[in-house]
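Protein: Iron-dependent peroxidase
Species: Ottowia thiooxydans
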Amino acid sequence: MSDALMIATDSSPQPQAVAESPGVAAYFIVLNIAPGAQAEEAVRSFFGNAAGLRRSVGQRLLGRELSLVVGIGSDAWDRLFGAPRPAALHPFKELNGEKHRAPSTPGDLLLHIRARTEDMCFELATQIMLALGNSVEPVDEVHGFRYFDARSMVGFVDGTENPEGAEAIDATVIGNEDPGFEGGSYVIVQKYLHDMQAWNKLSTEEQERVIGRSKHDDIEMADDVKPANSHIALNVVEDEDGNELAILRSNMPFASPSRGEFGTYFIAYASDPGVTELMLTNMFIGRPPGNYDRLLDFSSAVTGTLFFVPSQALLEELAAGNPFQTGDTETASSAVDASALASASASAPASAKSSGTLSIGSLKGQPQLDSLLTPSRNT
Ligand code: HEM
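Structure follows.
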């Protein structure tokens, strides 16, 4: 049995730094893996080295809270590791609403670097790129900054209703519903560009009705006042028992004022990407369909990519290839020692997470997700 699986059965493996605070500075880097077996080998070996690189840079200036999360895209997982694969890993599903579109864009690797100062992000990104060399090609790179009291680019405080502490872990970390991948997470990223001229033409009261909270004090509107197409109204989703479902957002504004570019880098971790996808469906298609998120009239999604975030232990193990592979790479089920997984599930403590991945169709008052999602061009 692999080390990662043993850790998973005995105690929960340590997640990567998914639940860190957004930081004051953040780098969001999306990369593709270059063609060829040599590039694949270099990327695998970086997985074994990533935590060490973070320690090397972080140790130079203590207290700067440097953190790193490495995500792996669906196509990249297949190429680097084959079966078995994380149960909910798939390419980002493009959404086409009546008026607004969420595109699916390529990405093999995500680097999410956060710190109290940008020099730390810069240094770690530089060291990582030196390690990866020409095994990767850049797809997108965004440098986010904390804007006064954690305001988004549109001037409202962002992140208020994020889960905290144990709730944040519960919302983001895979439990025993996916044996072998415990301690992992999923992350969806989208780069949004805002039409700030149009946005700034709205009065503060109109902007507040778009978001569903007050601008200055960040207080949520009462339910009977909050418009049904406000951002907040459409992003509160529940399971069939009426329990609110959470994701953990670590959004950051970014801008290039001389080019007139103003944006929000949306990034959300979840133990089940179906929760984030449901929110996106509400925003782009609408709940009910047609009642889309008014914030999208001022914000265009220009990227959209989904990644799996292995636990810290699994990331390191992946340096040597897929630890669950038995030589038969054809089917995921045959590649995992079935008896080991059965005993892992049986011995793991019962928790809310053991109920399995979200059954989207069973959600109260929600559109049927699968009928609304357009398969991505990658699928
Ligand atoms: C244009 C990009 C976006 C901007 C500027 C933005 C901004 C905001 C702001 C200002 C809030 C209120 C404060 C808070 O609770 O954080 C908020 C809440 C929230 N947003 Fe967004 N957001 C964006 C995109 C998204 C997307 C794409 C999703 C989901 C897929 C999302 C999910 C949420 C959730 C779940 C909440 C909290 C709802 C609640 O429980 O009250 N946001 N967002």
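Remarks: Residues 3-372 form one domain.
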